[in-house]
Design goal:
Layout: E1 8-9, E2 12-13, H1 14-37, H2 43-65, H3 73-93, H4 101-112, H5 115-137, H6 143-159, H7 172-175, H8 179-191, H9 199-218, H10 223-234, H11 237-242, H12 249-263, H13 268-282, H14 292-301, H15 304-322, H16 324-333, H17 357-368, H18 376-400, H19 405-438, H20 456-459, H21 463-482, H22 488-494, H23 496-504, H24 513-516, H25 518-524, H26 535-554, H27 573-578, H28 584-595, E3 602-605, E4 624-626, H29 637-640, E5 643-647, H30 654-660, E6 664-668, E7 672-676
Parallel strand pairs: 3-4, 3-5
Antiparallel strand pairs: 1-2, 5-7, 6-7
Helix pairs in contact: 1-2, 1-3, 1-8, 2-8, 2-9, 2-12, 2-13, 2-15, 5-10, 5-26, 6-8, 9-10, 9-12, 12-13, 12-25, 13-15, 14-15, 14-22, 18-19, 19-21, 19-26, 21-22, 21-26, 23-25
């Protein structure tokens, strides 16, 4: 009925929901039409190409519109509509090519006819469905996301574009490559709130899984082995945990993986897109540069034509999307990495106890050891069960299946490896620690995330199966190459992880290096198919992986399924704050929400490692201005903002200044102070 008031769900009207859906669909439609126009060989290749185009689209559009402060619904809507029209015109002129759904349906039937592969796919679908539920409902509470990933995105949202945010508590806000957050920024603008903050990471996981399958097939692995390799990747602790956060490691890893899978193709446009994808990765995380030698060698072994066209795409992608943060850093700080965390990532700390590359690599490997959330009892029961199953596999192979003794022995040995992997992690950790001490460089910190659920998220890596297979991949591929079972392309990708670790040994030690290692792991993931050809062996790895990832998700402290604040999909933002590494932020946030009216502009004087995003509100209703803390007259703040949140850390002295200026001071749950101006109201940021 004309003039009727739209129906409201929460704070979003039906009209706004439709508009948000349209704005999200526009770049997706553009990418799919443009990728279809390339007439690639399969649906998988088209989807990977579409993902690269989608990332490039949002990156280029948000960069281009930011100087004009047009990263708004109107600005991105008009721009994306024009791009969609251009893509549709190209698609029409190319003869309206399809996506290859017929071949995809045939592939689905092949999965259904293979019980082992079908179980792999079923587990992946269940994992992805659970993660999607969290993406759609769970509030953010990953600490890095709260301290700068989402905090800077919220600032860009209110400014209507990417800009140099003044007086930020951490250089990370301005100096870290922003491409992942540019994807989040588009979602914020499209929806008008922060609810779908994890959508870009989730899409990155989907793209990574498809790229893994595509690369495995192009490396001439069988259909079943390629599907299993992709599905196994979804069970790695790190992949499943980060897919529902606003961090950028999964996003960064998806781009070199997508690039490599496209560089294994043949059409010119596909090769150029492969190079562009690798360049885009540099716009998300500088450590992706450590896999550039692997991708370059992969292109070189395919021939001069592939290398030249891939390089052309790389240059184009870097110029249009990847390089601008480095240009801005150079202009503002005189260093392409700025003066924050990434400025030292390429410089080794020459400490006497850590003077060698071997010592630093030892630290990294030690930190990657991961038995997920398995108890000691379960670990030992698994290896006992593995021994029993291995004997059964050997007997069945020889007696029932009449396999050769060598094949039966090989299958049973592989089954043992799957079930023994968790207990092997514990003994391997002890061995590494002994070796390091014996050679004068004891490993730093504790053994990965062993035995401590609270450390599950920050120190999770690939689970026991992922660790064993990823480190075994280069050796297995080398033997297979020597026996002429695989070609040199497979060998190059298989050695991604050792090459990355060797190059990273020149950088300083970082407690979260396991996140960086996801990039070479994603490149090597297609070669996991080498272990998954035999159904019984693949099933053994699947069983242990399923147990591992099930326990990881069940015991995830940030996304609880049981306990006082569970389940995660029903948590409020205050509940989500209560299960972070600083649970006192929950009381602070509750007080903040009670004292500060919706829509009020808020000033902030914070320390670097504080969850600044919480001040924006899940609905992004509070514009936040970061205030200077030195050489500024505090009387000027009254004209800027009606409320100021003040840290209890280094700059807590500011409370005295506001109190002496007549502001009222409120205690926010013993975590922050809130200064309210006399007669404070909603106010506007000036």
């Amino acid at each position: 009925m004309a003039g009727a008031t739209p129906k409201v769900h929460g704070s979003v009207t039906d009209y706004e929901s439709v508009l948000a859906a349209v704005l999200i669909a526009l770049p997706l439609g553009t990418a799919l039409l443009a990728a279809s126009s390339l007439r690639l060989e399969s649906l998988a290749a088209t989807l990977v190409a579409a993902y690269v185009l989608y990332v490039g689209d949002l990156g280029a559009v948000t960069w281009a519109l930011s100087p004009l402060r047009l990263v708004t619904r109107a600005g991105v809507g008009v721009t994306e509509a024009l791009l969609l029209a251009a893509a549709a015109t190209l698609w029409w002129r190319r003869g309206r090519p399809g996506l290859g759904l017929g071949r995809a349906a045939a592939a689905a039937r092949r999965v259904g006819s293979d019980p082992v592969t079908a179980v792999f796919v079923l587990l992946t679908v269940v994992l992805l469905a659970y993660e999607l539920l969290l993406v759609a409902t769970a509030p953010p509470n990953n600490w890095d996301s709260l301290t700068y990933h989402l905090a800077r995105t919220a600032a860009w949202y209110h400014h209507h574009g990417i800009y140099e945010i003044p007086n930020v508590p951490s250089p990370n806000f301005n100096e870290f490559p922003p491409l992942a957050e540019q994807q989040v920024l588009y979602v914020f603008v499209a929806t008008g709130h922060g609810g779908l903050f994890a959508l870009p990471q989730y899409l990155a996981e989907l793209a990574l899984l498809v790229a893994t399958y595509l690369a495995a097939r192009r490396l001439r692995f069988g259909f079943a082995a390629a599907v299993r390799a992709s599905a196994l990747l979804a069970t790695f602790s790190f992949v499943a945990l980060q897919a529902t956060t606003a961090q950028n490691d999964l996003f960064a890893a998806s781009l070199p993986a997508a690039g490599a899978s496209l560089l294994l193709g043949s059409p010119t446009a596909e090769l150029a897109l492969g190079g562009a994808a690798v360049a885009f990765a540099l716009g998300a995380k500088p450590t992706t540069a450590l896999v550039l030698p692997v991708v370059a060698v992969l292109a070189l072994v395919r021939g001069r034509r592939v290398f030249v066209r891939g390089l052309a795409g790389f240059v184009a992608g870097f110029v249009t999307v990847g390089m601008w943060v480095y240009v801005l850093n150079l202009a503002h700080t005189g260093n392409v990495f700025g003066h924050g965390g990434w400025a030292t990532i390429g410089v080794a700390k020459q400490e006497p106890i850590k003077a060698t590359h071997v010592a630093r690599i030892t630290d990294v490997v030690y930190l990657l050891i991961d038995i997920a959330a398995m108890s000691g009892t379960l670990v030992h029961r698994l290896w006992i069960a593995g021994a029993v199953v291995a004997v059964a596999v050997f007997v069945a192979g020889v007696v029932a299946l009449r396999a050769s003794l060598l094949r039966a022995l090989r299958d049973s040995a592989a089954v043992v490896v799957a079930f023994v992997a968790p207990v092997a992690m514990i003994y391997l950790g002890n061995a590494i620690a002994w070796f390091a001490r014996a050679n004068g460089y004891p490993v730093r910190g504790r053994l990965g995330n062993i035995g401590d659920i609270a450390r599950l998220v920050p120190y999770a890596s690939f689970g026991p199966i992922g660790f064993v297979l990823l480190f075994a991949t280069p050796f297995a591929a080398t033997l297979a190459f020597a026996w002429r079972r695989v070609d040199v392309r497979t060998l190059v990708l298989a050695w991604s992880l050792p090459v990355f670790l060797a190059l990273f040994s020149y950088a300083h030690f970082n407690w979260f290096v396991n996140r960086f290692v996801l990039v070479p792991a994603a490149l090597a993931a297609p070669v996991l198919a080498i272990f998954l050809r035999r159904g019984i062996v693949a099933f053994a790895f699947l069983v242990v992986s399923a147990i591992s990832i099930g326990l990881v998700l069940q015991n995830d402290p940030l996304r609880p399924v049981r306990g006082a604040y569970a389940p995660a999909w029903r948590m409020s933002q205050v509940d989500a704050a209560a299960v972070t590494e600083a649970p006192q932020t929950a009381a602070a946030l509750a007080s903040y929400q009670r004292l500060v009216p919706a829509g009020a502009c808020v000033g902030a004087i914070l320390d670097p490692d504080e969850p600044a995003y919480l001040l924006s509100d899940p609905g992004l209703s509070h514009p936040v201005i970061y205030l200077p803390v030195a050489n500024e007259p505090y009387e000027a703040y009254i004209r800027l903002v009606p409320y100021v949140v003040i840290t209890r850390g280094t700059n807590s002295w500011a409370v005295r200044e506001f109190r002496s200026a007549g502001w009222s001071i409120h205690d926010l749950g013993h975590y922050w102070w809130l200064a309210a101006a006399p007669h404070a109201g909603v106010g506007r940021c000036l």
